[in-house]
Amino acid sequence: MFKRVLIANRGEIALRVMRTCKRLGIETVAIYSDADVRSPHVTQADHAIGIGGYTPRESYLIVEKVLDAARASGADAIHPGYGFLSENAEFARAVAAAGMTFIGPSPEAIAMLGDKTAARDLAIRSQVPISPGSDGAVATFDEARAVVDRIGFPVIIKAAAGGGGKGMRIVESASEIESAFRSAQNEALSAFNDERVFIERYIVQPRHIEIQILADTHGTVLYFPERECSVQRRHQKVIEESPSTAVTPQIRQAMGLAAARLVTAANYTNAGTLEFLLDASGEFYFMEVNTRLQVEHPVTEMISGVDFVEQQLLIAAGKPLEIKQQDVAHPKGAAIECRVCAEDVFNDFLPDTGVVSFMQLPDGDGVRNDSALYEGYEVSVHYDPMVAKLVVHADDRQTCIERTMKALDEYHIVGFKTTIPFCRLVLDSAPFRSGQYSTFFVKEHWPITHSEDFSAMLSCISAAGFAAEQDRRAPRNSND
Predict the structure, then answer these.
(1) Does 472 map to a domain?
(2) Fewer Cβ in 10 A, N or C end of the chain?
(3) How many whole angstroms separate alpha carbon 418 and alpha carbon 425?
(4) Are 336 and 392 in contact (CB under 8 A)?
(5) φ and ψ at residue 464, rounded to 5 degrees
(6) Residue 460: inside a domain
(7) Model confidence over 162-219: pLDDT tens digits?
(8) Is residue 263 part of a domain?
(9) Within this chain, do residues 364 and 291 fall inside the same structural domain, yes or no?
């Protein structure tokens, strides 16, 4: 096993990796930008090295700065977390060249599966279902129009590189094709320095389902029960749950086996996630592979009892998986994750900024807080607006919903707007409670103005945060 691991990330994911390392007796090394000098991942690491700069492009995204810190610290391995350099094949290759272990898949697997057109081709060869679409990237508008003429409307144009909803456009009529094609190309070039896009048939009212896998260097591949990720804005997830109300045991097994076939064909090792779309008839279609630990991995940890960071470390160290497929084939209870993002949910989810003047996190049975917030924490425009995650587990879905709503009621952050009101209202909505929802949830149901308690609930949420801060500031008796 490794002696010292540098975590090439920040915030809650750095702390999350750190927790497992500490439990396993592995020393941790934090890196930090000038913006993160006071961050908990810096103070809680065994070693911390400043890499300068304020924005990610001046710090966490500079490969040589990360490697220099790793060399200086004596780290023998690097965990990339998610985002930043986690899916950068050249970074993984540079880590190996520097004599350290990259805790993730091989550079070759990252490069192959990180390219959506190459991943799509591999899915076809692996007999994994895909939706009709272009054969590889589409370079010109004339080619795009020909593909649409062949497969029909609606279609979705996607960036061949990267993810996170960038470079993605839904097209429903001929008059929209050219502008959507050009804007998708431009956004892909800006986000990923790669303007290639491809086209697929768009699945109407789909469920966004993903399968977590673990694969070791000894040929074992495990798949875990699905995560439902259909509550999204701008193609980016806000609420995830497991198991999905739309997935039967038969679909679960079919998706899992499809995922295992594809990663086996790619010679993939370590943790990864395969994303699928599920239509109303129960047919599913491959979308992409995320060659890293997912933001929502705690959902699967809760319903499986498996620590995925621990498994990542063991696999990277060459150890065989000791978990058996039958041990993780079925979900144990239910789990829900709510992403806490600094966003104004009543103004098109626009990012918000500010400084935490007061915070109070929920507690209780089955409640997990993945957070790096502290009073004085500044949310700036330079980093992703997700600042924390609330993950809740219970024996069944209904209990999990109620437990999560209670935790959200007790979750107070003063200083900027967050997605907490959105999550609270979604969980209490009829579509979510019934399990009859899709990726169109936000478009069709938000704001949930038809709720009689809508205004009252917002007032309560706002008042609760204010009251909690006032209570904190009140004079205390010395016996308290």
Answers:
(1) no
(2) C
(3) 13
(4) yes
(5) -65, -40
(6) yes
(7) 777 788 999 999 999 999 999 999 999 988 889 999 999 999 889 999 999 999 999 9
(8) yes
(9) yes
Residue 477, exposed/middle/buried by CB under 10 A (0-12, 13-18, 19+)? exposed
The CATH number of the domain where 388 resides is what? 3.30.470.20
User: Do the domain assignments include residue 111?
Assistant: no
> What does the pLDDT read at residue 478?
35
Amino acid at site 247: V
Q: Find all residues with CB under 8 Å of 317, minimum gap 6, and list them.
A: 1, 2, 101
Query: Do both 437 and 310 map to the same domain?
Result: yes
Q: Which two tokens stand for residue 168?
A: 């993605």
* Cis preceding-peptide flag for 243 (omega within 30 of 0): yes
**Catalytic residue check, 120:** no
| Domain identity same for 277 and 187 | no
Burial class (CB in 10 A: 0-12, 13-18, 19+), 118: middle
Using CA of residue 344, residue 347, residue 349, residue 354, what is the dihedral sign?
A: negative
Number of domains in the chain: 3
DSSP 318-366: TPPP---HHHHSS--SEEEEEEEESEETTTTTEE--EE-SEEE---STT
The letter for the amino acid at 375 is E
What CA–CA distance (Å, rounded) separates 148 from 141? 11
Burial 289-309 (b: 16+ CB within 10 A, else e): bbbbbbbbbbbbbbbbebbbb
Number of neighbouring beta carbons within 10 Å of residue 281: 6
Contact, 86 vs 312, CB < 8 A? no
Environment class of 197 (CB within 10 Å of its CB; exposed 0-12, middle 13-18, buried 19+): buried
Query: Looking at residue 469, what is its pLDDT?
Result: 45
Pairing state between β 27-32 and 47-50? parallel
Angle in degrees, 0-180, between the axes of helices 141-151 and 177-192, rounded to the nearest 10:
120
Beta pairing class for 367-371 and 386-394: antiparallel
The CATH number that applies at residue 166 is 3.30.1490.20
Helix (H) or strand (E) holding 182: helix 177-192
Give me the domain span that covers residue 32.
4-103
Q: Looking at this protein, which amino acid is placed at residue 102?
A: F
Flag residues of the chain having pLDDT under 70.
449-480
Report the phi/psi class of residue 179: left, alpha or beta, with left for phi > 0 and alpha for psi in -120 to 50: alpha
pLDDT at 179: 95
Structure-token match 């190459």, residue found: 118
Considering 292, 339, 403, 424, which one is annotated as catalytic?
292
Answer yes or no: are the C-beta atoms of 406 and 366 closer than 8 Å.
no
Strands 270-278 and 358-360: unpaired
State the distance between the two ends of the chain, measured CA to CA, in whole angstroms: 47
